[in-house]
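Hey, I'm writing a tutorial for new members on how sequence and structure tokens pair up, and I'd like a real worked example in the thread rather than a made-up one. If someone can provide the structure for the chain below, I'll link this post from the tutorial.
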Amino acid sequence: IRGTTAQFKFKLPYTYDNLEWITITFWQPRNPNFTPIIKRKSECSPVFGTTEICTSMTCEETARFSDKYKAKVQLRAQPIEILQEAPFGCKEKTITVYPMVDDLIQDDNNTPVEPSTPPVAEGWIELDGGEIAR
């Protein structure tokens, strides 16, 4: 979702400690104003007891995407020299970019506004991730 933090998990053939470097590139092919976002090993963290790694994008980074186009992500990494393996990678993956109203992304005022009188139950709008019910 644009303007929010986004977390990504990758399952690899090696553990985090057995990798010399990692490069994860996020891009949006049809967005002419978009510069790729690149994450390095220092911006990744291992998932304990697995060969998975996680990385995330900041609110500012996800706000750069357009929700009119799909985004792409691809990983490339190099095992440590002791393993004497060539760099490996994954196929590019397509990511759906979900919209967020620009006014909400740019609103730095996160202070909740206390209503003077609580709304009545019939007037509430329920947002549960599904359809909006009134």
